[in-house]
């Protein structure tokens, strides 16, 4: 595992964008696994700027997203398809047919999950998977206690996740109770994994995930078993790893 400590959120985003850019330049038709949420916004902004300057092209790149709320249309402002369009896809030259997000309006969620697994296999697998991490160590919608052997599946969102996501909706009753999500097995099959974390509030869970035991109580801890993981975080998020003596690159 490689760990990079950046000065702040902007520097973290720049470092993460460097890694993604290098992947796209090295293999223009690579498959990127993409994440949503507040943490990757800065990274996507950096990628857009590089495209606009003519330094990077996504014309051959394919993408698959980690998850989507069940019941939200792609045009809903809180859907993850909408997030990806507004934060990245609409501002770069990636072909629309090469961007893949789970269908939140699928009539048969199980069939949608199985089709998504097959899609990833048909693309040749994920070359680089971008991840964020929740305060309880969840990755995608894989919550503490979830089976590590799951591929894409239907998720019953926990009350803590519903409460955390309620800030994005006018009323808590509007927050979806279910989602479709890649499972831990799907994530671990990626050739490379890039985890980004920011903020003091993530310091404890980062330490548990990367210094503690591998346990379903902290889903991100399974990344210790992956052969090619890069962790990029700001000083606030990584300071407890540094204090614990973890080798951190500049």
Describe this structure in words.
With 250 residues, the protein is of the alpha/beta class. The chain has a single domain, classed as Rossmann fold (3-Layer(aba) Sandwich). Helix content is 33%, strand content 17%. It has helices at residues 9-26, 41-52, 80-87, 109-122, 159-165, 184-188, 203-211, 235-243; strands at residues 2-6, 31-34, 62-65, 67-69, 99-100, 128-131, 153-156, 178-181, 192-197, 229-234. Strands 1-10-9-6-2-3-5 form a 7-stranded parallel sheet. Strand 2, helix 2 and strand 3 (62-65) form a beta-alpha-beta unit. The longest helix is centred in the first third of the chain and has 18 residues, at 9-26. The mean pLDDT is 95.
Count of individual domains: 1
Category from helices, strands and their pairing:
alpha/beta
Provide the gyration radius in Å.
17 Å
CATH class: Alpha Beta
Which strand-content bin applies to the residues? Answer: 15-25%
What integer is the average pLDDT? 95
Helix content: 25-40%
The global form is globular
Show unreliable segments: none
CATH topology group: Rossmann fold
| Number of extended strands | 10
Q: Based on the coordinates given, report the CATH architecture.
A: 3-Layer(aba) Sandwich
**N/C terminus separation:** 14 Å
Largest sheet: 7 strands, parallel
Question: Strand order across the biggest sheet?
Answer: 1-10-9-6-2-3-5
| H/E series | EHEHEEHEHEEHEHEHEH
Number of helices: 8
């Amino acid at each position: 595992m490689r760990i990079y400590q950046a000065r702040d959120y902007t520097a973290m985003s720049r470092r993460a964008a460097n890694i993604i850019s290098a992947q796209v330049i090295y293999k223009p038709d690579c498959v990127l696994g993409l994440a949503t949420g507040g943490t990757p916004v800065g990274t996507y902004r950096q990628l857009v700027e590089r495209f606009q300057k003519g330094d990077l092209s996504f014309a051959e790149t394919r993408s698959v997203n980690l998850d989507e709320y069940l019941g939200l249309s792609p045009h809903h402002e809180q859907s993850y398809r909408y997030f990806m369009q507004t934060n990245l896809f609409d501002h770069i030259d990636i072909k629309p047919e090469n961007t893949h997000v789970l269908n939140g309006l699928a009539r048969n969620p199980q069939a949608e999950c199985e089709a998504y697994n097959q899609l990833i296999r048909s693309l040749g697998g994920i070359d680089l998977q971008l991840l964020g991490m929740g305060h309880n160590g969840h990755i995608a919608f894989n919550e503490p206690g979830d089976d590590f052997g799951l591929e894409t599946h239907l998720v019953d969102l926990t009350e803590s996740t519903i409460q955390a996501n309620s800030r994005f909706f006018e009323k808590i009753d509007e927050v979806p109770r279910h989602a479709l999500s890649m499972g831990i097995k799907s994530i671990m099959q990626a050739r490379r994994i890039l985890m980004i974390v920011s903020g003091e509030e993530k310091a404890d869970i980062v330490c548990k995930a990367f210094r503690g035991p591998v346990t379903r109580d902290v889903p991100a801890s399974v990344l210790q078993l992956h052969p090619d993981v890069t962790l990029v975080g700001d000083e606030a998020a990584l300071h407890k790893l540094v204090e614990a003596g973890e080798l951190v690159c500049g």
